[in-house]
Amino acid sequence: MAPTSPSPFSSQPALSTLRSPPLTSTGSPKPDPYFLVYCPYPDKKKVGGIERRYNIQMVAQSMLESGLSLCQTRKRGPTRNIGLLALRPGERILVSFNEYGQVVNEIKGRRLKSYLGTLVRNQHNVPLQVNGWKSVIVDDKEKIWALVLEKFDVEEDRKDNILSLAGDKYRSYRSKMKATYYEPWATNDERLRHKPPLVSDADWRWLVQ
According to DSSP H, which parts of 46-105 are helical? Predict the structure, then answer.
């Protein structure tokens, strides 16, 4: 297993469900490119206390780029930051920093930290087949920075602080994965049989061996 500090890759996110548009009096769907996003339990999922409407193309694109999931089961798993999908095009969240360059730990700051965790858990953004965050290539780190700027209003001079925080999230992710799926088993054969959800066979084999 590549050397990292210990943390889990929790349960798989549930598949999202999309409710069809309302029907006309004749029973045919009304022409509407928007759908209500909801979870299959116990009723509808509400985001920020109210139902939200999403353009399905925007949702799909955001999920593809950021690894976001539209809904979660009651079982606690990795945070997927569905609330960020409610942002209008061009709308960004302003984040505050303290005198030491650290993200202020209020609601907006916590959303940024959570989003960074979501980004680094997505192997399309940051690969697993590296020895650690320092081995992640510059292009991948630039991608993380660009994705952050799409959702958050952050000055350019905070880039190093943001990427350092992303590195902390990445190390924590690998550490928890090691503690949950590697250390409990005595042999590599057992470890390979207990692959974390959403990690490819090739990535897990590389990490184990």
Answer: 56-66
